[in-house]
Amino acid sequence: MNEKLTFDQVLKGLEKITEHTSIKELVWVIKNGDILFSPGIIQEKKNLASLYKLRVNIKKELQEDKFSKEELDNWNSAVNELDEYECIFVNLNMIITVEKIYFLFWDNKKVKLISSFWLNKEQSLNESEKNYDITIEKGYSVSSIKYSKTIKVKDWK
Length: 157
Known about the structure:
Number of strands: 6
Low-confidence stretches: none
Shape: globular
Radius of gyration: 15 Å
């Protein structure tokens, strides 16, 4: 199976994408602000596509009032693109910014972004960091790294 993509690989891959406003916005935030980066997981594409299709359908039916139409449409579109893409394994990364959480689906072998979607955040970066600290204190693991203007400042292990 493939290795998870590193922060540098993800940033370089994102920088190559110029046609998507949300990706250009994400690159700007990564280079100019604070983010939490999760190296994520590698799963079979069919399983990940199925899981996220189920999640978006549940959100549409049971929690539609918690998400904007734009969020749900973006999520649904990303899952459809993922479902149609030809590969076996996919790397899912998450990047948390001040305003949004980005879900990035990658073809590791090509270091190519297959699809992505974002959701508006309910808690601040500081709250996310505190939750990570509490999780570590309880003996669990967290696979997130904090970057400030592309410089690693904290790694939860």
